[in-house]
Amino acid sequence: MGLSVAEKLSILADAAKYDVACTSSGIDRSAKRGLVGSASQAGCCHSFTPDGRCITLLKVLMTNACIYDCAYCVNRCSNEVPRASFAPQELADLTMAFYRRNYIEGLFLSSGVVGNPDRTTELMVETLRLLREEHRFNGYIHAKAVPGTSPELVERLGYLSDRLSVNLELPSQRSLALLAPQKSKQAIFDPMAQIRDSIAQDGETRAIGRTRTTYYPQKAPARKRRAFSPAGQSTQMIIGATPETDLSVLSLSAALYRTMGLKRVFFSAYVPAVQDPRLPSGVPVQLNREHRLYQADWLMRFYKFDVTEIIDGRNPMLDLEVDPKANWALNHLECFPVEVNTAPLEMLLRVPGIGPKGARLILKARRTCCLREPELRKLGIAFKRARYFITCNGFYMGAGTEFTPQALRARLRAPIDGGSHGARSAKVSAGQRTLFEVAAERAGAEPQALESAPLRAGLPEARTVVPELTRLWQAPVAQAVPR
Fold first, then answer.
1. Which residues pair with 39 in a beta bridge?
2. 3-class DSSP state of 440
């Protein structure tokens, strides 16, 4: 007897939870006449899970059957787990059913490799084609490009989705050969380079089409083609399963931004989901390290920090006690304190507690008034952190604290007291209800009777790898130094 749609969703939504590259949509697209759905740049985040948690993306695998035997993957072929697969029509109908019930705003689609990469991608392409062409779905879609897929299929997938991602999986070629020997460097970098080139070429073509040129066509213009992956591409690396240092991880990330034009590099702390002698044992999930890597990545993308400013060979691991920006400030106290009424934008961005938006607001506000503590608090900066590194009209804001690395470090390590005046301070969660309980209450029926009713109702040539990227990828693995 085959699995029901609800049973398939339970298996494949749970199997997709280790994919983390879906925190934002990265594209604005308003509703259009004749089409269903829109996409918001503010962020299609979270995912659908069988326990009914609030989501905006249906995050699911096409199938969790896989021909690969990657050591870290819960869906590896040698792991004994329930297997399930969606047919393209089945998944397309399910997505639209969830959208019409306002459960989701978009789709995050990945898959295990069934048969071969081309066969897997064909199933994903057919699913997206049904959504875009038959259901006229105009919402956000993030698709995973399977390494080893032919360029023609990658191109078709790119024109049907808003964002593509090719998972790098591990931070070095040696680690990939150890834990995922069936995957190769070339199979990962080739589709990355193709996506980069296709995005650039599509952008140039559309820019030419927007030029103000008057012409008189002899026939009706062809139907406008969708943009190729307009939200760009991203990738994901597993952190903690292999001994690479934060320095090597961030250096590789910076090279990917420069050479492949990626929008995001996602870091996923290794979770021991399967047993394998090649994997570390007794190591806790390094969520704090993952958080610091994201902070360092943010500094590189939005604060114009170089990797060598954040981390170096003498200390190849990020400090887990203070964030990377504060750590840089503590190591460069000769640059502080900064006078907020005269400092340039580049220096304001180096102050802990002041972000890009806050720095620009300071530049705008100080044209009309002298900034002091009340004015800075109104601008929304994190004044409790910034005060140790700034002066206002010549007065040091961190009075009472010794201006030494040790004293300031102790202050920055201490948890910030948010007070009891916030909007959430008196709120207590009453518990999480499941999706089917909510549906049952609305219909006035027992939850068990409606458990599956909501589901049934709406049912080119290979690119050359950039030399710099190859050097970082093939570099010897430096052992992580415990702090």
1. 29
2. helix
- For residue 137, the cross-strand partners are 36
pLDDT band at 278 (very low <50, low <70, confident <90, very high): very high
- φ/ψ of 93, rounded to 5, equals -65, -40
* Terminal Cα distance for the chain, rounded: 54
* Number of residues written out for the chain: 483
Strands (E), 111-220: 140-144, 163-165
Residues 6+ apart with CB under 8 A from 378: none
Cβ proximity of 204 and 131 under 8 Å = no
DSSP 389: G
Q: Checking DSSP bridges between strand 338-339 and strand 264-269, what pairing results, if any? A: unpaired
User: Among 141, 147, 117, which Cα is nearest to 127's?
Assistant: 141
> pLDDT for 201-245, tens place per residue?
998 888 877 665 555 555 555 556 789 999 899 999 999 999 999
- Between CA 286 and CA 240 the distance in angstroms is 7
Taking only the tens place, the pLDDT of each residue in 282-339 is 888 899 999 999 999 999 999 989 999 999 889 999 999 999 999 999 999 999 999 9
Q: Is it the case that residue 369 has pLDDT exceeding 50?
A: yes
Architecture of domain 5-207: Alpha-Beta Barrel (3.20)
Q: Where are the alpha helices (DSSP H) in 182-261?
A: 185-209, 246-260
Domain boundaries along the sequence of the chain:
5-207, 324-413
Instruction: Determine the residue type at 130.
Output: L
* pTM exceeds 0.70: yes
Residue 176 predicted with pLDDT over 80? yes
Residue 471, burial from CB neighbour count under 10 angstroms (0-12, 13-18, 19+): exposed
> Between the CA of residue 170 and those of 34, 80, 183, 320, what are the distances in Å?
43, 24, 11, 22
Instruction: Give Cβ neighbours of residue 365 (< 8 Å, ≥ 6 apart).
Output: 371, 375, 379
State pLDDT tens for residues 387-405.
999 999 999 999 889 999 9
**Tokens 């399930």 map to which residue?**
84
